[in-house]
Every structure is written in C-alpha cells, then in structure tokens.
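To whoever is covering the structure queue this week,

Two jobs came back overnight. Logging them here so there's a record in the thread.

Job A:
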Amino acid sequence: MWAPWRMEYILADTSAGGCLFCDLRATPRAAWREKLVLAVDEYVLVCLNRYPFAAGHLLVVPRRHAGDFAGLEAAEYDALMRALRTTLARLREAMRPEGVNLGFNLGKVAGAGIAEHLHAHLVPRWGGDTNFMPVLADVRVMPEYLDATWERLAPHFDA
C-alpha cells in the first residue's frame, strides 16, 4: 500500500505558527493552481483540501480569522452560507457526485485539523467509493491527482 500524501502531512512543520487559511486569502491569482485555490471574494475563499478524503474534497473558508460562527459578522456569515450553496452547485456540475458530505468540525475534539479558523468541508461521494482500504490500512484511494482535480473544477469557479 502506498499513500505518499500522508508523509507530507505527518512531517509538515507547524512550529512557525500562523494560519494556513489566512495565508491562502492573500495568494495572488497566478499562484492559485499551486496553492489549490479556486475562488476568493470579499468574504470567502474556496480551495481544494490538500489532504482529501475523496477526489474533489473542497473547503469553503471565511477570509477573516474566526474559530466559530460567533466570531463572524452577519455579512460574513451570510456570504459563507451563500458560498456553500454556490460551491455545492459547482462541485455537482463539475464532478457529478451521487451525494455530498457537507459539514463543519468545530474544535479539535470534533475533528478540526485547523480549529482556529472556521471552514466547511464539501466531500463528493459516489456509490462504491468507500472500500476496505481506509478500514484495514488507513489508506485512501484517490482516482485523480490534485492538480487534475483543480483543472476539472477551476472553469466552474471562473465567474
């Protein structure tokens, strides 16, 4: 079994502090593909998850650093919810999943990898995409490279 993406995640240097999502919000458009960013507007950014649970695993992130819904202003909350709806439509159009898991992990014990900055996960699902690999070997089978998934999704986020 080979899951090379896990080692990058395991060995990632987190000692520098800072916030991955705050860094992403300032990414120049020319670097979006490299950073897996699909869209940025006044309140929200959308990007691919670098360590996905399934091909097309997206993150919708408020631009302002807040760890929970209570930390968002009304306009930011509204923009986040609208972005979730729009992102879901674009994900369905581009990937044609049979279902989608959509959710927030609030706090480390709830599974948040970056608990300090609120973000939503949209994970496209297809019948048969879950098999014995994650159960027996903690390995996920990705049918497509992240760069190819970015290429598939990017045209749907141009507007």
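Job B:
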Amino acid sequence: MISVPSLERAVRTHVLFRAVNEQIVTLAAGATDVKLVVCECSREDCIEALELTFPEYQAIRGESSRFVVAAGHELEEIEDVVEQRPRFVIVETRGAARHLAAEMDPRER
C-alpha cells in the first residue's frame, strides 16, 4: 500500500505535468495536428514526450482523474489503465488519489 505522503507526491507530479501540457495546448491555440506533450506520469524525473492531437488531449482532460502517460509508466497502486493506444496510455487515478487529482484540477474550480 502506498503511504499518504507518497500518494500526495505522486498525484502532485501528475498534476504538475498536466499543468505543463495545459500550457503547451494553450500556446498551440487549438491546432488539430499532432502535438508533443509531456508524459503525465508520477515519476518526477520523467522527460518522455508523447504525440497527441488537440482533440485527443481534450478528451482525456474531460476527466480530472485521467492522465496520459507513456507505456510502462503506470502506477498500479493508485491508478488503472483505461485505454492503451499505440502512442500513449490513458490512466485513471482511484480512491484518495482520484479525490486529490480533482481538488488540484484548475478546470474543476
């Protein structure tokens, strides 16, 4: 079982990388072609780039508990794989991690 400080750190890392991607999407001004975003996994040292279209990213961001990660970057203790695609994996946080992700999501405020 993951400890509370570790859980919070993992979710904060997810949210930090999501904030970076929100800026990338904002700067792209709604383009529909493939864009590079950063992996939103909970690994603080991750620098993996992922290719997503604007509509793909927006669909994932429709749920505050969902994040886009590189294959193999899933954290089984706090998240479930929702969908595996050739270029990325969509994960969804569960339990306390899900609640933290929603609380930290600026779109939910």
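Note for Job B: Helices lie at 4-28, 54-61, 95-103.

Please reply-all if you pick these up so we don't duplicate work.
Q.
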